[in-house]
Amino acid sequence: MAIPDYQSLMLPVLTLAAKGEIRVPEAAQIIADQLGLSDLEREEMLPSGRQRVLHNRIHWAKFYMTKAGLIDSPKRGTFVASPSGLELLASHPARIDVDTLKRIPAFENYYNHFTKGAMQSVESEVFAASSPSDITPEEQIDAAHALLTTALKADLLARVLEQSPVFFEHLIVDLLVAMGYGGSHEDAARKLGKSGDGGIDGIIDEDRLGLDRIYVQAKRYAEGSTVGRPEVQGFVGSLVGQGANKGVFVTTSVFSKQALDYARALQQRVILIDGARLTDLMVEFGVGVRASRTIEVKRLDEDFFSEDS
């Protein structure tokens, strides 16, 4: 039989996750046995040649159910059914798909935010092979790329939250150096995390000559936490104590409206980077990610066919 689409795999994946912690390769092996897939089907690769089709579709099934709160990731590389997932299974659903998940408020908010307009058509067309869309092939590529990037950023933030505070500080070093600050990685590494000041985690040169410095605070807060005005105010107080006028406060969570308004009104230049902006920058500057597939789209060269001399 053909490999099922990712929506058809949601129920089998959640059923396995209800039995205890499991990894995607283990789940793929069990599901392949249950479906009676041939060796060729088990080993079928994506066009990129970098991942098996079955593994990829299980990953997407798991990703969507995680956004719906049906699956938890207790540690790196493993997943398990959450209490909400167990409750859904107890109702003996005949199928779990995107329409099922959209009845869950958390997923509906996510889905509406990240899959609006053309992306909704492309999402089903690319991953579930549904009816043809009215959008052009180039729009399909752009929308599919946006969807993949959204999933990547969610995975990035989840992985960062699994790491230690020391790892997070090193990540900020890598990111700032990739953005052109710090002169060299060695110089930046020596300065970040060495301050010892109450509200400052490190100092990094703004340019290679060290003509100006940026003071950094890097706080790995759990998902759902909010960094309020008092934390930002404490950081600004440390800047004033150092006679500094430039600072960057990086967190894996979000800033409250009061914190954002306070930072905007400051005389000092203080940039607040939340978890969403952090993953944007990591993807843009290639920190913690690598290219998986490159597609070159060619167009007709009208100049080649022109007979004008």
TrEMBL record:
Record key words, sorted: Endonuclease, Hydrolase, Nuclease
Keyword Nuclease: yes
SUPFAM superfamilies referenced in this protein's UniProt entry, alphabetically: Restriction endonuclease-like
Keyword Cell division: no
InterPro entries in the cross-refs: Mrr-like_N_dom (IPR025745), Restrct_endonuc-II-like (IPR011335), Restrct_endonuc_IV_Mrr (IPR007560), tRNA_endonuc-like_dom_sf (IPR011856), Type_IV_Methyl-Rstrct_Enzyme (IPR052906)
Domain Restriction system protein Mrr-like N-terminal residues, every copy: 6-90
Ranges where the Restriction endonuclease type IV Mrr domain occurs: 162-282
A GO molecular-function annotation: DNA binding
GO biological process, any: DNA restriction-modification system
Superkingdom of the organism of origin: Bacteria
PANTHER family: MRR RESTRICTION SYSTEM PROTEIN, TYPE IV METHYL-DIRECTED RESTRICTION ENZYME ECOKMRR
This protein's name: Restriction endonuclease
